[in-house]
Amino acid sequence: MKIEEFSNRRDLVDKIGRAKQMAGGSPVIIDLGAGQGELEVYPASLRSNPKGGVFIAGKYNLRKALFILAGESLKIMEEYDGRIIARYSDFVIKKCRWSRTIARKIRDTFPECAPGTGDNGQNWEKSLAFGDVLGMAGRAQLRAFSGKAGLAFSRQCIHELRDLDIHPEDVIDVITFTVFQEGLQTGYAAEACHLTSEEDVQVMLDAGYTRFSVEPDQTDLFACREKTKHELLNHMFEVPWIALRDKFELMLHRYKGHRIEISAIDTSGHPYEEDEPLVVIPTESEVLAAIAMFADIILTMEAIEAVFEKEGVRDKICVDLSFNRSGEVLTPFEHYFLMNELHRHDVQPDFLGPGRPDKNQWKLANHTNVKGLSGDIRFFSDSPPAGSGLTQHGIVPDIGYTTALECMIEKDPELFRIMWDSSRNVFEDAKKGSHISLEIHRIPGSSEYQDPELMQLLQGDQAEEFVKLAMSNVLSLKDEHGKRYLRQSLMDFLNEHEDLYIARLASKYQYWVDTFFAD
Fold first, then answer.
1. What angle do CA 495, 500, 503 make, to 5 degrees?
2. What would the DSSP string read from start to end of 326-382?
3. Cα–Cα distance between 179 and 364 in angstroms, integer?
4. Is 65 within 8 Å of 178 (Cβ atoms)?
5. Cβ–Cβ contacts within 10 Å for residue 452, how many?
6. Which helix (H) or strand (E) holds 250?
7. Is the dihedral of CA 94, 95, 100, 104 positive or negative?
8. Around Cβ 288, how many Cβ atoms within 10 Å?
9. What would you give as a GO molecular function for this chain, any one (predicted)?
10. CA atoms of 29 and 18, how far apart (whole Å)
11. Taking all residues of the chain, what is their mean pLDDT, rounded to a whole number?
12. How many Å apart are CA 376 and CA 234, to the nearest integer?
């Protein structure tokens, strides 16, 4: 759609407003007239600034920009760095390059563009978190989301950000632009994941994140279940009892052989399918294994809680203790033990990710006063009971990079070949420290396929695992000038083919979101 004529600022603003209804989320071209060129703007972003002027997001020479439509003498024009690109009888248009300074100003001026807790004061039965390490998927995510639940926007892994040398606040700035551009008003959270220490949490808190998924090192965590009683008893000497302010005998006898009864959930008129309570009677070996598994985690969570208390933000953020990446599921006793001991240390996570939550774990969630359970939306086996007040926090897999590769096959197969074969070259280094058994000889090179056949590479049984593991390493590769040349090539490609990329992503996200809400 194109706006070619307007008589004054009000006329232009009215036409942009009408374009919003007709164009949906698509950009609109404005012909500036008199040889002044054209602007690409997003009608949904149109906002009036309380200090005067009208703000709108768009692009200028393919780069993100903020445009201000106002009288040239207004004070607001001095507050935003940029340059005037068009003049008219009653207003000018100022183009401001999107920067950290501009993003902060937008968050201060328009609170809905700043991260909050993501619930906008509503008690959702479901919430969603979308991953987006490339920072280009926001439009597709918001369109699939469509205001159906609480939103934790742009879930970011701190380790991937470090590997790619991306500052966490840069991601917040991208989120700000997307939310502003799309006109989102419902509130959202910015989620940081794979956090393992209070230092990780402080970094992401300082950057503006508001939801924190703590995922302790789970390398050998669940191996404790397989240890003999003798091995576990020897491990008790390694437990930091002084730091825990506890004693082995006291902790053991708090649980060993005790009948733990978890009541059925009172759903206030919505009968739960299984009314009977959950009964757990842990053995000595189960208690010993739980102590070995969770002692250090309890101390880590206590230290993280202290960070939030020191910063005075505990009531403004959300904390999720997650075991979703482990491939294991907390047993009912492990779930109970961990939460009970955290409570003894005055630590109360808002959410718990026990693996693949089932009905018994919803009972435990209700009993231990968490707001809900979290997990990959593909693997939730049960939803929270209706009327329980609990929230199911679904994590949508980050499919941005794989989708970008699919688009390359269609639009630039040579670039795809470079990305794919470079991934094969860095794979062995990428695999170090992981538990992935995939061997590179099982991943064919691109030269074995003609262009029309390249999609078969992404459809192989282990292609997704291969691409995900190699991504950070291949995007971190530098040329002789220190430039991350493949990452730049990727971003240039996505900027050129953004509409195709967003459309394909939105279709995939819509499938997962519809599945998540199907029940």
1. 120
2. GS----HHHHHHHHHHHHHTT---SEEE-SS--HHHHHHHHHTT-SEEEEETTT---
3. 36
4. no
5. 9
6. helix 248-255
7. positive
8. 25
9. isomerase activity
10. 13
11. 90
12. 36
Summarize the chain as % helix, strand, coil (round to 5).
45, 15, 35
In terms of phi and psi (left: phi > 0; alpha: psi -120 to 50; beta: otherwise), the region of 389 is: left
Amino acid letter, 442: R
Longest alpha-carbon distance in the chain: 86
**Token pair for 353:** 């990710």
The neighbouring-strand residues paired with 240 are none
Write the pLDDT tens digit of every residue in 220-241.
889 999 999 999 999 999 999 9
- At 352, list the tokens: 């718990």
- DSSP states of 90-114 as a string? S-EEEEEE--HHHHHHHHHH-GGGS
pLDDT in tens, 418-440: 999 999 999 988 888 676 778 88
pLDDT-derived band of residue 333, with 50, 70 and 90 as boundaries? Answer: very high
When computed from its CA atoms, the radius of gyration of the chain, rounded to whole angstroms, is: 26
Q: CA 125, 128, 134: angle at the middle one, nearest 5?
A: 175
Q: Element (H or E) spanning 156, and its range?
A: strand 150-157
User: What integer is the mean pLDDT of 136-140?
Assistant: 89
Query: Quick check: 17 pLDDT over 60?
Result: yes
- Rounded to whole angstroms, the Cα distance separating 106 from 127 reads 25
The C-alpha atoms of residue 305 and residue 319 are separated, in whole angstroms, by 9
Predicted confidence (pLDDT) per residue in 71-92, tens digit: 999 999 999 999 999 999 999 9
**Would you say 457 and 420 are in contact if contact means Cβ atoms under 8 Å apart?**
yes
Q: At what angle do helices 248-255 and 284-311 cross, to 10 degrees?
A: 110
The amino acid sitting at 307 is V
Residue bearing tokens 């718990």: 352
Paired tokens of 359: 């009905």
Cα–Cα distance between 357 and 27 in angstroms, integer? 41
- Distance (Å, whole) CA 424 – CA 448: 14
Residue type, 467: V
Q: Is 3 helix (H, G, I), strand (E, B) or coil?
A: strand
Q: How remote is the C-alpha of 219 from its chain's centroid?
A: 23
Gap between the Cα atoms of 372 and 384, Å rounded: 8
* Burial profile 11-21: b = 16 or more Cβ within 10 angstroms, e = fewer: ebbebbeebbe
